[in-house]
Write a sequence for this structure.
């Protein structure tokens, strides 16, 4: 199992669970970051934190601290 921090730029993953709490949990759930949601890392700041993720058609910047609490499964690359 990986956390959202572990996926590389351009890589996709599916959310397994999140261990966030309080206001950030509510905001992530409102954005649709629930079990089974596909997430793609699409950018990062020059310092590396925060990183930008494509979530259900919207690009969202998330801090490493919050990403570390989101469990994901990497998507297998599709060749063809």
């Amino acid at each position: 199992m990986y956390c959202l921090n572990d996926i590389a730029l351009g890589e996709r993953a599916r959310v397994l669970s999140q261990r966030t709490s309080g206001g950030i949990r509510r905001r992530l759930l409102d954005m649709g970051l629930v079990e089974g949601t596909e997430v793609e890392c699409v950018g990062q700041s020059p310092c590396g934190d925060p990183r930008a993720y494509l979530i259900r058609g919207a690009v969202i910047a998330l801090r490493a601290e919050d990403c570390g609490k989101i469990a994901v499964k990497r998507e297998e690359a599709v060749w063809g």
